[in-house]
Design brief:
The structure holds two protein chains of two kinds. By secondary structure, chain A is an alpha+beta fold. In chain A, α7 crosses α8, α11 packs across α14 and α15 packs across α17. The two termini of chain A are about 45 Å apart. In chain B, strands 1, 2, 3, 4, 5, 6, 7, 8 and 9 form a nine-stranded mixed β-sheet that branches. In chain B, α6 runs antiparallel to α7. Classes of the chains: A alpha+beta, B alpha+beta. Chains A and B meet through α8 of A and β4, β6 and β7 of B.
Chain lengths: ~700, ~290
């Protein structure tokens, strides 16, 4: 069969960088679905994205489709006349043209509808329209007088099949064989023949079509201009810059020396976040007074004016930062707490300052429990939110905590206090680093406990996609923190302390939940977050999580639970675990069938006197020895040993099933063997409910 | 010779006049941005075509720096263009305007960087970009989607040039007060500092140190009340002017630090209610 290539480019005004990678994925997905629905076969689909274009190329499409016959099933032959008539009308056939379909449910009318072969070209004009209509941007807009929406106004449609234009129009634009290259370097439109020609001509017109290739050029380019210096590793910045340029050209700018006394983050935040520059580091790993910037043009002056311009902008931003740095330190850090009194935490939960007061109490209580100095904790808690009122954090919100640390260090606070001010916000991302130092860990937990308890108490919990106070994130953060081995605490108890820190009488919340209900709701929520953590961060299989939590969900020690799941992961990874599971399933199936049949549960004592075979007594002996051992290991939290012990059961259980028939004629022996199986089940349940594990 | 401040304004007036805009004068009351001029915010509502361009001195009391900061100003100047409906070639036309005042997009690496615009006080939102030249934001480029809570049909495009920043690039200088305001070789050369530094100094001192907050709170109440009365009388333009006054008084109180976070949200809500009422009246009268 003859095959051909389809090239489709959607040209628009500048697409936001952050939306480009997923747009490329979405277009590919939509195209695949369209082809499937139309029964159109193809060899490959590729998609591309630049700041101004979204492109699809499909190879190996047939020139026309083959005739298809579709069987359309109608009503029963004895259905009311109206129903039959309706069917005939929609199918466009007479009663005589119908077949009779014999089914177990009776005889049905059926008609074979022929779908004649179509020219692929005419299908593609509809496919192109459908892609444009079905595409969803995270945010889209209208323009001119049209009600059509796109991420930014559409400006061109290039649509070629087998080298010829597939004609259609959308949003007042006629599809053609022409497009544009770089906005400034080669603005004249040009025509293309096919994808190869398109890609090459785009390159001639200063556009690198492939996102990955542009990213690579940027990475290499910045490294090259950096010379002996090294760009600070920042993958997301690299991604963002890739979506801002069609023709990347890396340049190097200078930072005025006198700004280099400012803290690292104060210099690099405006660089990265506001200006999309790459900070450059010297050999000692210190910030060098230079930055990499990626332009979208090859300028006739080799970028001199661009460098001057960018240096000027950075100078203005750093001058602001320097001003804030000096202003903020004219007063001691705790002075900012005054402004926190007018900063609302939540309408019903008081100001940020009252939150700070609660944190002081809660942190001291946690410190006593953890055996660390409560005075240090009180100080850290008191200063914890002060920097939120500083000018620097107002200008650069991403510096919260970091500024607190610098300002505390400069006013000679205790080192642990200063460190806690920064690390209270860790983990910053799901799976991110949690603090190791005890004061940091306690402050980080207390902050999240206070937020979660407060919101749950006033009846604000995340529902569906709605979570305006980011409570899911706070919950996940708390779980990650609670898994730190250096401080294990009873979560339920700590939640209670936090509840007691709120001055509920003063706050006069309209519908306050009592302590018990709040804690119960929150515990349920945290367990869900914990499951999410085990699956998505620890990457344990879903069924392992269920298996462990269903035997231990009242155990408030999350750290133990996570170790237990990990141990189970380890066991199930090996042959012993897999075979043990097979034996378990066999045992529990037999038990279930017999228990259903006899309408009872077999959990009685095993009677050694009734054993016939060595395999029976050997099995019983192993279990009697292992069960208390395993129980002991589980209690101590030594799950690795518990799992190793479990694994040793495998040969005996295998021999038992090889030789022993459970459902024997002798009634007493049968019951005794069922008790033995139940004993085996009980032993495994010390670790997890193995019935929840998928084989 | 590098282009001076007033010549850039004259050129922009000439350029946009040729594109069919009515060239208007600044709104003669205090506003925070060119968007607040009725020729933008009200005219963007309703079906009638409209093209306007004008300079708008814009007051941001919070940005006052006593005439000492090389980049921040109590009052800066915006060049504002509104085109309804948005023309298909507007990006190209805009870039032509940059070339017209002497800014070469290649030499300065002009870029369109995502920046969605939202004004909570006006109940307005749009999608677009900040336009960068050499890493500096020089224009806000916005397709209005909604104003005063009403969808914009047709869509207008708004271009807001930051004149000081743009001309600092053209003149290659670091300090706004060194900008040549008129021709430096002319009979009476003036810098930006000669023209505007005293105002910067005095207004910063006024708003940070001498502003009588209780009095300004009263003025706010009065402006709000007047606006509400004028809406009842169906006088949309005077009502809107009092909405602008309320908005400016709010900015003064905010810069003085006279508002707590909760109060701040409350005042923004009150200005938004006035703006919404004005837009609603405008739509009822089918003015746009």
């Amino acid at each position: 069969m003859l095959v051909a290539e389809w090239l489709f480019e959607i040209l628009s005004e500048e697409i936001p960088s952050r939306m480009q990678p997923m747009a490329q994925e979405q277009l590919r997905g939509l195209a695949e679905t369209e082809f499937q629905e139309q029964g159109l076969e193809f060899e490959t689909i590729r998609t591309f994205v630049t700041p101004r274009r979204l492109t699809l190329v499909v190879e190996g499409l047939p020139l026309k489709t083959v005739e298809r016959v579709e069987e359309k099933k109608g009503p029963r032959v004895d259905a009311p006349a109206q129903a039959i008539e309706g069917f005939l009308k929609t199918a466009g056939v007479s009663r005589e043209a119908c077949d009779i379909l014999d089914t177990p449910k009776g005889q049905f009318l059926s008609v074979a509808i022929k779908q004649p072969g179509q020219l692929t070209e005419s299908i593609l004009s509809k496919t192109a329209l459908s892609l444009l209509e079905k595409f969803r941007w995270p945010k889209s807009m209208r323009w001119r007088s049209s009600s059509i929406t796109w991420v930014r106004p559409l400006r061109g449609l290039l649509c070629l099949f087998d080298g010829k234009v597939v004609s259609f129009s959308y949003a007042g634009i006629e599809a053609s064989n022409s497009t544009q290259g770089h906005r400034f370097l080669a603005p004249t439109p040009f025509e293309v023949q096919n994808f190869k020609d398109y890609e090459k001509k785009l390159h001639d017109h200063f556009v690198i079509l492939d996102w990955q290739e542009r990213r690579q050029i940027i990475k290499a380019g910045v490294s090259k201009v950096a010379g002996e210096l090294t760009p600070l590793k920042d993958e997301s910045l690299l991604d963002e810059v890739t979506g801002l340029v069609e023709w990347p050209v890396a340049l190097k700018g200078k930072v005025d020396k006198h700004f280099m006394n400012l803290p690292l983050e104060v210099i690099t935040t405006p660089m990265r976040v506001h200006q999309r520059y790459f900070p450059l580091m010297n050999r000692e790993g210190k910030l060098a007074p230079y930055f990499g910037v990626v332009a979208n043009v090859e300028a006739p002056d080799q970028g001199k004016a661009i460098i001057i311009g960018n240096e000027r902008v950075l100078r203005a931003r750093l001058a602001d930062a320097q001003f804030f740095w000096e202003q903020d330190q004219k007063h001691p850090l705790e002075r900012f707490n005054l402004s926190l009194k007018t900063r609302l935490f939540h309408q019903h939960l008081g100001s940020v300052f009252t939150k700070v007061e609660r944190l002081v109490t809660l942190c001291m209580r946690m410190a006593e429990k953890a055996g660390t100095d409560p005075r240090i904790m009180a100080r850290a808690a008191l200063l914890s939110k002060a920097d939120l009122a500083s000018q620097m954090v107002n200008e650069f919100p991403e510096l919260q905590g970091i500024m607190g640390r610098y300002y505390a260090q400069n006013q000679k606070e205790n080192a642990e206090v200063a460190q806690a001010l920064e690390e209270q916000y860790w983990p910053k991302t799901s799976g991110g680093k949690t603090p190791d130092a005890l004061p940091s860990l306690i402050l980080a937990m207390a902050d999240r406990l206070d937020t979660l308890v407060g919101f749950f108490a006033i009846g604000i919990a995340p529902t569906g996609s709605k979570d305006p106070f980011a409570l899911r994130r706070a919950g996940l953060g708390l779980i990650a923190l609670a898994l730190n081995p250096s401080f294990s605490l009873s979560m339920l108890e700590t939640l209670g302390w936090s509840y007691d820190c709120y001055p509920w009488d003063e706050l006069a919340v309209p519908q306050l939940k009592d302590r018990e209900e709040t804690l119960a709701d929150l515990w349920k929520f945290l367990l869900e977050r914990f499951k999410f953590f085990l699956r998505d961060v620890q990457e344990s299989p879903y069924d392992h999580v269920e298996a462990v939590l269903s035997v231990a969900d009242q155990n408030p020690n999350l750290f133990d639970l996570s170790l237990r799941v990990k141990a189970l992961d380890q066991l199930m990874d090996g042959e012993d675990g897999k075979n043990l599971l097979v034996a378990y399933k066999r045992a529990s199936n037999i038990l279930k069938i017999e228990e259903d049949k006899d309408k009872c549960t077999y959990e009685g004592q095993v009677n050694k006197e009734l054993f016939d075979l060595d395999e029976e007594s050997e099995f019983f002996k192993s279990l009697s020895q292992k069960l208390p051992e395993i129980e002991g290991f589980v209690k101590k939290g030594d799950f690795v040993k518990a799992v190793q012990d479990l694994a040793t059961l495998r040969p005996v259980v295998d021999r038992f099933f090889d030789k022993v028939v459970v459902n024997t004629e002798d009634k007493n022996k049968r019951v005794n063997r069922l008790h033995l199986l139940a004993y085996f089940r009980k032993t495994l349940h010390q670790l997890a409910d193995f019935s929840k594990i998928e084989s | 010779m590098k282009v001076d401040f007033q010549t850039v304004i004259l050129k922009l007036q000439e350029f946009w006049s040729q594109k069919g805009c009515v060239i208007l004068q600044p709104y003669d009351a205090e506003v925070g941005a060119g968007t607040f001029h009725p020729a933008t915010i009200l005219k963007a509502l309703g079906p009638k075509p409209w093209r306007a361009a004008y300079v708008q001195p814009s007051r941001r009391p919070g940005d006052g720096r006593y005439g000492e900061n090389p980049n921040r100003l109590y009052r800066h100047h915006q060049y504002q263009v509104l085109l309804k409906p948005s023309p298909d070639d507007i990006q190209d036309v805009y870039l032509d305007s940059l070339k017209y005042i002497g800014l070469d997009p290649i030499l300065h690496d002009v870029r369109f960087v995502e920046d969605d615009w939202e004004s909570p006080t006006l109940g307005a939102a749009g999608l677009g970009w900040e336009v960068w030249a050499g890493g500096q934001e020089v224009t806000q480029f916005t397709y209005f989607q909604q104003v005063g809570g009403f969808p914009c049909e047709p869509v207008s495009v708004e271009l807001t040039y930051g004149l000081e920043r743009l001309i600092m690039i053209l003149q290659g200088i670091e300090n706004v007060y060194d900008l040549a305001w008129n021709h430096p070789a002319g009979p009476s050369p003036m810098t930006y500092g000669d023209v505007a530094q005293q105002m910067e100094r005095e207004f910063s001192t006024f708003s940070f140190e001498h502003l009588d907050a209780p009095m300004v709170f009263r003025h706010f109440e009065d402006a709000e009340s007047m606006c509400t009365q004028l809406i009842t009388s169906k006088l949309v333009l005077p009502a809107y002017e009092y909405c602008l006054k309320a908005s400016h008084l709010f900015n003064l109180l905010d810069a003085r630090g006279a508002l707590s976070v909760t109060e701040r949200a409350n005042y923004i809500g009150r200005v938004r209610a006035l703006a919404h009422a004005c837009c609603t009246l405008w739509m009822e009268n089918a003015c746009g």
